[in-house]
């Protein structure tokens, strides 16, 4: 059974940083492309970043480039999203997501609120 548990979200001020975590189990963690997505109130789900298989390549939405870093800790089966210089536009519920065993899996998410 695939499980994804996100944590690390909280209320922060603009310019501050957060690190989100996604603890994964139930599949071969090192072998799958995993992504972070987010959903702001009243908006559609938005892809943020991906950690790709076949190496350590990562991809990001344009407004996250240079601010966000996603990486895996294979020993801990955990995907991270380091977010720096946060802005109110980053306020959303953040989820980790992957396609495995023929379907999409997503956790419950963690709330990030950026406000002064």
Supply database-style keywords.
116 residues; mainly beta; 7-stranded mixed sheet; 4-stranded antiparallel sheet
Describe the structure in your own words.
This protein is mainly beta and 116 residues long. It has no helices and eleven strands. It has strands at residues 3-7, 11-12, 18-25, 34-39, 46-51, 58-60, 68-73, 78-83, 92-100, 103-106, 110-114. Strands 2, 4, 5, 6, 9, 10 and 11 form a seven-stranded mixed sheet that branches. A hairpin with a 6-residue loop joins strand 4 and strand 5. The protein is globular and about 40 Å long. The relative contact order is 0.32.
- Overall mean pLDDT score? 94
Q: Can you count the beta strands?
A: 11
Rg over alpha carbons: 13 Å
Low-pLDDT segments: none
Report the principal-axis shape: globular
Reported for the largest beta sheet, the result is: 7 strands, mixed
Helix segment tally: 0
List the helices and strands and how they pair.
Layout: E1 3-7, E2 11-12, E3 18-25, E4 34-39, E5 46-51, E6 58-60, E7 68-73, E8 78-83, E9 92-100, E10 103-106, E11 110-114
Parallel strand pairs: 2-11
Antiparallel strand pairs: 1-3, 3-8, 4-5, 4-9, 5-6, 7-8, 9-10, 9-11
């Amino acid at each position: 059974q695939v499980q994804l548990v996100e944590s690390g979200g909280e209320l922060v001020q603009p310019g501050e940083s957060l690190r989100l975590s996604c603890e994964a189990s139930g599949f071969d963690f090192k072998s799958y492309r995993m992504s972070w997505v987010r959903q702001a109130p009243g908006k559609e789900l938005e892809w943020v970043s991906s950690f790709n298989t076949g190496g350590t390549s990562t991809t990001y939405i344009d407004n996250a480039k240079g601010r966000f870093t996603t990486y895996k800790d294979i020993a801990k089966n955990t995907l991270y999203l380091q977010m720096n210089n946060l802005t109110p536009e980053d306020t959303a519920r953040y989820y980790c997501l992957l396609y495995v065993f023929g379907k999409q899996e997503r956790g419950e998410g963690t709330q990030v609120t950026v406000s002064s």
